[in-house]
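Handout, tutorial session.
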Amino acid sequence: MEETYKRKLSEHIALLELEPTSKNLFIEGPEDGNIFELFLDFHSINDVQIYPIDIIDFSELDENIFSNREKVLLLSRKIYEKFDNSLNNIACVIDKDFDVLNENFNVNPYLYYTDYANLEMYLFNNKSLNKILKIGLKNFPLSSEEVIKTLTPILVDNFCLRYAREKINCSYQLIQPEKIFNYSQGGITYNQQEILNKFLVKNNCVNKLEDFKKEIEFVKDKFKELNEPRLFIHGKDFLEFFFLLIKKIKNTYSYTLKTFTRAVFLSIENDLLNSYGLFSNIELKYRKI
């Protein structure tokens, strides 16, 4: 199979100079594109090109760019440096991720943040989860409210650990999801301190216990202050832990993580997306006058 050609960053900037009225939406990954494509279709907006950032080759830059999020952020900066605020139809969307903790938000007219930690959090609500539980699972014994109540503390704790790892040593490996909690006789068995101890032993860094406690406590304090769990949940954790809960209780249709993830994204409610700042701003930018 012939390899898909990737334009270099400079080539893409030059293309925008030649076609300044083109409507482009740049996102972190191809899966994200499905959400935006369905949302724009819902509003009968069909002239926007949605590009996963991997279509651009950043190799000509003498910079270490480790993630797709960093690439989208860098692209927005380069566009701003070249065009100031003269392009009206360009948007670059990134996850809030840990920025809500550090209040380290970048600002330019082309950059848009998710309302919560990541795009997956637009699915972490009663209406969307109820849809997947009723249609995608059939006779599942827990309600959407119970699923959210059950998973939220575990997901927030894992977000805290992810943040601490990022601050102390990002090479440390997390505990595998299937080893974090058990479900039996209608209840969850989960111990935050036990998971932290396993993590420290696994990474041979028991001597850093106090460092991890300090960073985790920082996130917990911020969590109490903002009182919005969706700012403190990692998207991948949500999908994996939700799937594990399904497997442990009742996997009616023998989902795999991949097929379950697709089913979860099908539960998205386009009319509900309109109530969020990111999507209302995207609709406002691209709607037909």
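The second record follows below. Compare its token runs with those of the first.
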Amino acid sequence: MGVQFGDLVRQYPWHIVCVVSLLFIVGQGLIIYLANKNNWSLRIKPIQILVFIILFFYSLYMIFTGQSTM
């Protein structure tokens, strides 16, 4: 399985970056929503969220322009 996953990363690096960053953004949004709804105290790291948003849009740009290698 390690070889297959390595081939997947080499073949679709920007797709994987896009999916991981999107999952992080959605997860953080869900955590923030639940914390506000349930009056939980929460420490938000806006720079980390901003970096993942930039990575998401950068990976979309690379996918749309046909850039396949990192």
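Points raised in discussion: DSSP finds three helices and no strands in the chain.
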